[in-house]
Amino acid sequence: MGRGRHRRCNPSQRHKDGKRPYRVQALPVKTIKEDLRRRDFTINSVAFDIRNEKIVDPFNGLKDLKMGIIKATDKRTFVEDPLRLMRAVQFASRFEFGVEKNTKYLMSSNAQGLREITGERILDELHKITSKKGNTEIAFDLIDETDIDLALFGSKLRHNHLGQLDDLSFFYVLCKNGSVNPDRFYKDRLRGDRDFTKELEVLDKVMKIDLENIAEEELRFEIFNAIKRAPRFTRSHLLNPRVDDIVSKMRKNQIPSKMADIAIDGNVIEEKLGIEGKKIGQVLDLVKRDSLMGRVDWRDTDKLLAHIEMFK
Q1: Most exposed of 81, 116, 169, 223 (fewest Cβ within 10 Å)?
Q2: What is the DSSP code string of the chain?
Q3: Whole-angstrom Cα distance, residue 249 to residue 254?
Q4: Are 44 and 13 in contact (CB under 8 A)?
Q5: Mean pLDDT of residues grouped by 10 in the chain (312 residues)?
Q6: Neighbouring C-alpha atoms within 13 Å toward the C-beta of 149
Q7: Fold (CATH) for 3-192
């Protein structure tokens, strides 16, 4: 092999978010061992010599793979590309591997390098943890133990052991434990997409509801409106049992989860009852509340019209 792939940063160039664009450049290498030394971890520093039909494993990657160990191939691995810190977390959580002691030290020593990495690259590694069924507890522990949290949030995680989390809950807990606003951090630092940002925002609002002092009707109304904005939050593992019970009733079609479930709309109200303007919105709110509380058969248009007539 004559050329290898190596990450280098050009300090004179920056993205619009101020982060340096670590670029992959092809650099000349003299031997396959030199090329393998430039890989991130020993488990990825294994090759096959086609000419001699033998495995080339100068850093005992196969042994580490068998033992379930993440080990840096070279002491400069995290200097050459700090994103490798996130790759270590991703691999450890996905395969439930341990991280070798000296590699943890190297991660902690170079964690601040993540400040120079663009949010999109960090986000990609974080998403792989949940999309590929990684162990989120391992991810939280490693982020804490290697000071990645300090690099990302400027503070240590307040780690709560919550067990395995779905993707939305994982990002929510990660940000809340890092003392940052979840949706703003996801959007501004990680450059995440608009839909997931909205899901985080809605989940945050639902989690802040004062469940000890809110009436059942108001809670059902809040959840109904939240689902309209971002329905995915209902799959979060973090939901309080009261909220989860309401969501369960909606899934079982015991109460409506969206306005389309209710057998009436503004046009019908205007046509059949002669109600117009802002009054229609007020009537629809009444219908939603009474449907959610089971005070009217929300599947029957005639019964809904008769119910509205009672309050005209």
Answers
A1: 116
A2: --EEEEEEE-TT---TTS---EEEEEEE-SSHHHHHHTSSBGGG--EEETTTTEEE-TT-HHHHHHHTEE-BSSTTHHHH-TTHHHHHHHHHHHHT-EE-HHHHHHHHHHGGGGGGS-HHHHHHHHHHHHHTT--HHHHHHHHHHTTHHHHHHSS--------S--HHHHHHHHHHHTTS-HHHIIIIIS---HHHHHHHHHHHHHHTS-TTT--HHHHHHHHHHHHHH-GGGGG-TT--HHHHHHHHHHHTTSS-SSGGGSS--HHHHHHHH---THHHHHHHHHHHHHHHTTSS-TT-HHHHHHHHHTT-
A3: 5
A4: no
A5: 41 49 56 93 96 95 98 97 98 98 98 98 98 96 97 89 92 96 98 98 98 98 98 96 98 98 97 95 97 98 96 76
A6: 22
A7: Hydrophobic Seed Protein (1.10.110)
The label of the residue with tokens 């003299």 reads 30
